[in-house]
Write a structure and sequence with these properties.
Length: 731
């Protein structure tokens, strides 16, 4: 249009000149005929006498030229716009077609190298990849037999290269008889039918396994076991699919961490979005599992193969696995993109090392990138260790266990059967549970179990002093030697023994150390993701909806959330992981729910003593305890028999917060302070005369009542009356 306007500006003066000429001719004609026309209308300019027609024709020609020029320019402009639009559409279509071609070409290119990799000149050509494999299989045996000994070593020396990786498979075929050349590629094709979508490097690695049996080096060993070798390849392929094989480049829901919170989130996402595709990335080699049995029920199993099966009997006698779901519940990561109904895939042995929040993608420790729609960080934490142990050297650290994972359970179980002394440093939940569990083995063997902690009594940071002292005596009865008020000064290895030097001069000699001194939240991704870490409690700071940033949520041990009743907190317990993971999954699908739940936790000192707690349970706070005589029903074993589950938080519901009618027992509860037996009872923790924490000591299935008391946040004049709500005096 700018060109049209400039042309018109140039032609406009000419049109004006011609118009003036016509007017002057008309006036001249009127004077000649003795009559001056009052005006010279534009419509009659062309009707003048002879001599004025030339100017009129010029005027008409100019107007016509301008009109034609404007039309031509407009047409060209519209045609140019249409061409640019079509080019843009073609460019977009070519991008998608290139991505499809890359995916389809990968498995096709993996076939020719098996038969053509012998000749390096043929490998780079992509055209033969579309030809049937039956034809080229007949050519290689005739040429490279003399070169076969040297080629496999080259392939093994450079495994990342597609061109150098494949000759090992092809040349292994050449070394066999000609009849085996035609049959060998067919066998892997059946076993790897599910892997046809993998890139060449992933397809080629499993295939040499059944073919290597024909190599002269291993012929004597593998010919007799050819069939078992094929079975092992199939099993290992299924077990290692998440680690070395293809990783999806994009997933709508990415869950970082393979613990309880991630599994709860995945289940919640699938419940709200049945077709959702969820990818869990975990550093561990195991599928998602529950951690509490690692320090509880697994140690009391009579099955000698419990470290392999990881199945245990709960206190109620029912058997179950430590895993949330069997392997058949999940789909392989490479099948996640093509799954019509979605599913949950687990990528094991992988660690997310960097997050690009703006680009919505993460980088793994092998430089693989995965983009996501929504992301959950549930990385949990890592066990703390004493600085004196870290600095003591390899001889000490190699004989120290930081208890957290399945491998730690297996390792400690093996150690406990081969050494004479184990020392557990820590008097909290984990340390006390392991001390009681290992103490049971002192009756079966000569194992010595020692537990040391800086407090005066067992679980001194949680329980009131009188109850902590009673618990310490209970742990001693389990066969554990307790060393209280122990501050470790140094740890050395001398005379095949670990020597723990305490600050008060005491010396403890042992064969192995278990450090159970707390958990450090895993916030390695905070820097790259630009997320805030709480300076007081640790962990990622999140809002009421457990959201840290746009499209990023945090759940479990790594989340530092705001409690509307108790302030900002960070909780490291199973129930919190379940509830926070479930809520984060709902919010990732658009629920926008705030976190109101008061999570609980529990600990068992064997099958006879256990407690459940909620809120802030800190021995530095004022406490009021109300106790009663226990019966045979007041044990963890009886509680699980009644509820039907060994994980007591599974029976908890958020909507059962109504209090039952208090017991009408004639006995009046009293505040117990210094008695030798604390069968069962309720301990209230106060802050500004308001109950902020409650421990139910051998009182089970009453947690909704405790949760409601804390939620109300009221000041109670007589806590004895409040204790009646828990019916601790009923038989």
């Amino acid at each position: 249009m700018l060109k049209c306007r400039s042309v018109w500006n140039k032609l406009a003066p000419l049109t004006k000149v011609s118009s003036n000429v016509c007017r002057h001719n008309g006036r001249r004609t009127g004077l000649t005929n003795f009559r001056i026309p009052p005006c010279a209308p534009a419509a009659h300019m062309s009707t003048g006498p002879r001599g004025g027609g030339r100017e009129n024709q010029l005027y008409a020609a100019l107007v016509g030229a301008v009109t034609i020029t404007v039309g031509i320019l407009s047409y060209r402009h519209l045609k140019e716009d249409a061409r640019r639009y079509q080019d843009r559409i073609d460019e977009i279509e070519s991008r998608t077609s290139k991505g499809i071609v890359k995916q389809e070409s990968a498995p096709i290119q993996s076939e020719p190298p098996d038969v053509e990799a012998i000749e390096t000149e043929v490998v780079p050509e992509p055209e033969p990849s579309a030809e049937p494999t039956a034809e080229p299989q007949l050519e290689p045996p005739a040429e490279p037999e003399p070169e076969t000994p040297s080629a496999p070593s080259d392939a093994e020396a450079t495994p990342p290269s597609d061109t150098t990786e494949t000759p090992s498979a092809a040349e292994a075929v050449v070394e066999s008889a000609p009849e085996e050349v035609a049959e060998a590629p067919a066998a892997p094709a059946v076993e790897e039918g599910d892997l046809t979508k993998l890139p060449p490097s992933d397809l080629i690695e499993p295939s040499p396994a059944p073919i290597v049996d024909s190599e002269p080096k291993a012929a004597a060993e593998n010919l007799a076991a050819e069939s078992p070798e094929l079975e092992v390849v199939a099993k290992s392929g299924a077990d290692t699919v998440p680690a070395p094989h293809k990783v999806p480049s994009h997933t709508p829901y990415l869950l970082i961490g393979g613990g309880t919170a991630s599994f709860a989130a995945a289940r919640s996402i699938r419940a709200r979005d049945p077709g959702a595709k969820v990818l869990i990335v975990t550093e561990e080699t195991d599928l998602p599992y529950m951690r509490p049995p690692l320090s509880k029920e697994l140690w009391f199993s009579d099955d000698p193969s419990v470290t392999e099966t990881l199945r245990f009997k709960q206190w109620n006698g029912k058997e179950r696995s430590i895993y949330f779901q069997p392997a058949s519940f999940y789909i392989s990561p490479e099948d996640l993109d093509s799954a019509e109904n979605g599913g949950v895939a687990v990528l094991t042995d992988k660690k997310v090392v960097h997050m690009d929040v703006r680009g919505n993608k993460v980088k793994l420790d092998d430089d693989t990138e995965i983009s996501y729609g929504k992301c959950l960080i549930a990385t949990g934490g890592v066990p703390r260790n004493l600085q004196v142990i870290d600095r003591a050297g390899e001889e000490v650290t190699s004989r120290t266990t930081l208890f957290r994972k399945i491998d730690d359970f297996r390792s400690l179980d093996k150690v406990s059967r081969n050494v004479k002394s184990i020392t557990i440093i820590g008097g909290g939940f984990m340390g006390s549970e392991l001390a009681c569990a290992l103490g049971r083995r002192t009756n079966e063997s000569d194992l010595e179990v020692i537990q040391m902690f800086p407090e005066k009594g067992n679980m001194g940071k949680v329980l009131p002093e009188y109850l902590s002292n009673w618990t310490t005596e209970k742990v001693k009865k389990e066969g554990v030697k307790v060393v209280s008020e122990a501050l470790v000064k140094s740890v050395t290895f001398k005379d095949d023994k670990l020597q723990i030097q305490l600050k008060d001069g005491r010396l403890v000699k042992t064969d192995h150390i278990v450090a159970a001194v707390g958990l450090e939240p895993n916030v390695d991704l905070a820097k790259s993701a630009g997320m805030e870490v709480d300076s007081d409690f640790g962990g990622y700071r999140v809002n009421a909806e457990l959201q840290a940033r746009s499209n990023i949520w945090v759940a479990g041990d790594a989340a530092c959330f705001y409690d509307i009743r108790l302030g900002r907190r960070r909780v490291e317990h199973h129930d919190h992981a379940v509830v926070s993971g479930r809520l984060a999954g709902e919010n990732m699908t658009g629920a926008n729910k705030p976190y109101w739940h008061q999570s609980m936790f529990w600990s068992d000192l064997g099958p006879d003593v256990g407690y459940e707690a909620i809120g802030i349970v800190d021995s530095s706070l004022p406490t009021v305890g109300v106790f009663a005589k226990a019966t045979s029903k007041d044990t963890p074993k009886a509680a699980t028999e009644k509820s039907g589950t060994g994980i007591r938080s599974e029976s908890e519901t958020e909507d059962t917060a109504t209090s039952p009618v208090a017991s009408s027992s004639s006995s009046t509860p009293t505040v117990e302070q210094h008695k030798d037996d604390y069968g069962k009872g309720v301990i209230f923790y106060l802050r500004d005369k308001v109950v902020v924490g409650i421990i139910l000591w051998n009182v089970f299935n009453r947690m909704p009542i405790a949760r409601k008391i804390i939620k109300d946040g009221e000041e109670h004049a007589d806590l004895n009356e409040v204790a009646k709500l828990f019916n601790i005096h009923e038989d």
